[in-house]
């Protein structure tokens, strides 16, 4: 092997691209001094390999580590088959300083001035030159990078120009693919004749003095590189790509869980589990070593319900933890709540409480109908509910991140039914009350109606029903009753009772009588109770104003009334403004005889009479009668006037008139009058012949007078004053014999 020529250097820097990798390398300084081969073997056993230095590696190592001496790094002039690469690639294995120990390309050099030492040049030979021509505009980023395998001999004899590529890397994944896209490596090398090149000699007058044929590279404390004999004993720097594992948890219960993780890097000898247990009062770390064979799972048992567990799985290699642990956190399922019950209920609210379960619980979830909410105390007042309605409340205990919930605990409850409204009396009598009300909002099964005697607190009535009215019967008269209506729910639960105090009607009076005079009534009645209640009286007439009064006696007199007038009296017994059924009686005041009657007009066939009405009469009504016994005639009629005309009478006849004041079936004493129709005169001649055994007796005046008197008496006895008549006298001489 000889020293690098200028052509070799040209080729290296024309083809070079920077290494790119997503892996994050970690560096480990090992202070024990060993040979390079021993160092590499140790790094491969316990880490990944001797360190590969890229542009920022030196700064990272110097900044994070304290370098106190020279350290072996993963670079050797000749990587012989006995010193195989970590990677499977052997491309360029024979080219000095071309590969790192892990097989990566030498993309960066940081030699201390004067290093590496070059081997003396051989005799002058013609050498090619490499001209790299780059286009002015950047080429597109290649989809692959072609790598040519060449050796030092290929460079010396020029055969590398005809070599073919044997490796293709996807863009961005080539070991040389970290160069910027603006600097593509699609350069063209041309063979150009060159003048003979003189060997490059180091400034050292003796180039072989520090030359090492098979050298290894050590890094000084300042980061620069120097060559060392590979058998020298030096500390070394290993590297290892950061291990990114991943742990998971499954089959979590209240007391168990299964942890799974990814296999650690090659050489992992065992695993260590660190389980950190945390709840509100306890913090504890448990450790468990896991030896091969590895299943990469572990079942945790005897865990505490509702608690947080942080699990870290450490891969152990050469008695050390491989960088970061594989971690997973989880909560065990909490125990369910117990003793779920209610402490209070209203028509729209229910207060719930429960017992916190043992072990860990961070919060609770309450669910009913379409509502679901997370709460922290172990009690809650739920409002906005519908009266008398059944609700099922379900409570879960949960953990802080709400990832785990216990088994549910449920309870079904009814809200209290609401109250009735507008409770009142629709009707009453002495033995019953009819009450009605407005039903409540929400749901309910029915109503309980209760009636209690306020005086002695005895129950008079109790009934369950679904209607919003009730007729409460069998009650004592005139008694104060406490009527209570309570809404009953479907679970038998009752709402708040609504009360109403009221009286049954007292017993009515009986044997009501009106004893009249012409201008007054003495009203009397009877009553069943030994202690008289107040009585209310009302006297009414269409012909008079109303008269009302109160009394506690069993009689009352109304005076200054109108005569011959119909009055109606109504009497109620009263208890605490509650009236009995009314008792009613009607009667007339006694009629008074009309005043003087006179003839208003007469004719041959009619008579008109008039009279004076009684004083202080109301609605007048009179009975009139006209009669003529002589003719056997009689007329009767009633009138509300104070005059009356009779027609179709007989002329010259005397008639008797009678008028009475009427009051219902009552009649006053009559007022009478008489009158005669005008006469239509008719002369009737009556001839009588006087004969007597006594001489000259018929001619005597005394005889004539006596005869006329007897005739007048006879006619009077016959006609009297019933008709108009008169008797005249005319004397005629005796006829001649």
Automatic annotation (TrEMBL):
Stored CDD domains: CLECT, FN3
Pfam families: fn3 (PF00041)
Xref: PANTHER family: RECEPTOR-TYPE TYROSINE-PROTEIN PHOSPHATASE ETA-LIKE, TENASCIN
Official protein name in the record: Fibronectin
Xref: InterPro entries: C-type_lectin-like (IPR001304), C-type_lectin-like/link_sf (IPR016186), CTDL_fold (IPR016187), ECM_Regulatory_Proteins (IPR050991), FN3_dom (IPR003961), FN3_sf (IPR036116), Ig-like_fold (IPR013783)
Recorded coiled-coil stretches: none
Record SUPFAM superfamilies: C-type lectin-like (SSF56436), Fibronectin type III (SSF49265)
Keywords linked to the UniProt accession: Repeat, Signal
Domain C-type lectin: 27-127
Entry keyword Phosphoprotein: no
Keyword Repeat: yes
Residues covered by the Fibronectin type-III domain: 243-335, 336-418, 419-508, 593-681
Annotated signal peptide: 1-23
């Amino acid at each position: 092997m000889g020293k690098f020529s200028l052509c070799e250097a040209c080729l290296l820097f024309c083809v070079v691209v920077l290494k790119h990798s997503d892996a994050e390398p970690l560096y480990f300084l090992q202070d024990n001094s060993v040979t390079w081969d021993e160092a590499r073997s140790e790094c491969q056993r316990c880490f990944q390999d001797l360190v590969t230095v890229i542009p920022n590696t030196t700064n990272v190592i110097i900044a994070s580590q304290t370098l106190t001496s020279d350290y072996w790094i993963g670079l050797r002039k000749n990587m012989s088959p006995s010193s195989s690469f970590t990677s499977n690639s052997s491309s360029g294995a024979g080219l000095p300083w071309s590969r790192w120990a892990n097989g990566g390309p030498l993309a960066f050099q940081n030699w201390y001035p004067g290093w590496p030492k070059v081997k003396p040049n051989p005799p002058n030979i013609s050498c090619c030159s490499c001209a790299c021509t780059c286009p002015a505009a950047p080429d597109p980023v290649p989809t692959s990078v072609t790598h040519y395998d060449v050796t030092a001999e290929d460079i010396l004899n020029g055969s590398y120009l005809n070599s073919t590529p044997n490796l293709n890397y996807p863009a961005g994944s080539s070991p040389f693919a970290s160069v910027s896209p603006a600097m593509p490596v699609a350069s063209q090398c041309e063979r150009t004749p060159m003048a003979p090149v003189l060997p490059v000699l180091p400034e050292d007058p003796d180039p072989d003095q520090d030359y090492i044929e098979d050298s290894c590279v050590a890094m000084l404390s300042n980061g620069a590189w120097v060559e060392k004999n590979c058998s020298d004993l030096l500390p070394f720097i290993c590297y290892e790509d950061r291990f990114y594992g991943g742990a998971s948890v499954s089959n979590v219960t209240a007391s168990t869980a299964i942890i799974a993780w990814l296999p650690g890097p090659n050489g992992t000898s065992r695993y260590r589990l660190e389980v950190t247990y945390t709840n509100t009062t306890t913090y504890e770390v448990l450790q468990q070593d896991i030896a091969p064979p590895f299943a990469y799972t572990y079942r945790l048992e005897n865990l505490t319900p509702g608690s947080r567990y942080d699990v870290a799985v450490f891969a152990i290699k050469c008695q050390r933890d491989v960088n970061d642990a594989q971690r997973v956190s989880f909560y065990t399922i909490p125990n369910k709540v117990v003793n779920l019950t209610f402490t209070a209920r209203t028509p729209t609210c229910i207060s719930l409480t429960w017992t916190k379960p043992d072990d860990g619980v961070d919060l609770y979830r309450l669910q009913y109908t379409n509502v679901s909410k997370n709460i922290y105390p172990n009690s809650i007042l739920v409002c906005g509910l519908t009266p008398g309605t059944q609700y099922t409340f379900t409570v879960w205990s949960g953990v802080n991140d709400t990832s785990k919930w216990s088994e549910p605990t449920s309870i079904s409850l009814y809200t209290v039914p609401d109250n009735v409204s507008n409770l009142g009396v629709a009707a009453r009598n002495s033995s019953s009350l009819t009450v009605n009300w407005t039903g409540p909002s929400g749901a309910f099964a029915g109503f309980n109606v209760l009636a209690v005697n306020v005086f002695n607190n005895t129950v008079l009535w109790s009934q369950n029903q679904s209607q919003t009215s009730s007729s409460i019967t069998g009650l004592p008269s005139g008694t104060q009753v406490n009527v209570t209506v309570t809404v009953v729910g479907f679970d038998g639960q009752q709402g708040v009772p609504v009360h109403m105090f009221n009286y049954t009607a007292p017993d009515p009076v009986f044997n009501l009588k009106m004893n009249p005079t012409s201008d007054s009534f003495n009203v009397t009645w009877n009553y069943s109770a030994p202690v008289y209640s107040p009585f209310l009286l009302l006297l009414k007439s269409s012909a008079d104003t109303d008269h009302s009064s109160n009394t506690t006696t069993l009689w009352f007199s109304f005076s200054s009334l109108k005569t011959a007038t119909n009055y109606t009296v109504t009497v109620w017994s009263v208890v605490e403004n509650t009236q009995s059924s009314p008792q009613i009686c009607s009667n007339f005041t006694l009629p008074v005889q009309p005043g003087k009657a006179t003839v208003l007009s007469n004719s041959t066939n009619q008579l008109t009479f008039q009279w004076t009405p009684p004083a202080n009469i109301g609605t007048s009504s009179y009975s009139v009668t006209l009669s003529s016994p002589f003719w056997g005639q009689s007329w009767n009629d009633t009138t509300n006037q104070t005059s009356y005309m009779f027609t179709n009478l007989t002329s010259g006849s005397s008639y008797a008139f009678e008028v009475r004041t009427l009051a219902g079936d009552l009649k006053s004493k009559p007022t009478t009058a008489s009158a005669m129709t005008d006469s239509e005169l008719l002369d009737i001649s009556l001839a009588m012949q006087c004969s007597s055994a006594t001489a000259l007796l018929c001619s005597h005046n005394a005889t004539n007078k006596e005869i006329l008197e007897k005739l007048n008496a006879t006619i009077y006895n016959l006609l009297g004053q019933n008709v108009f008549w008169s008797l005249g006298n005319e004397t005629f001489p005796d006829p001649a014999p």
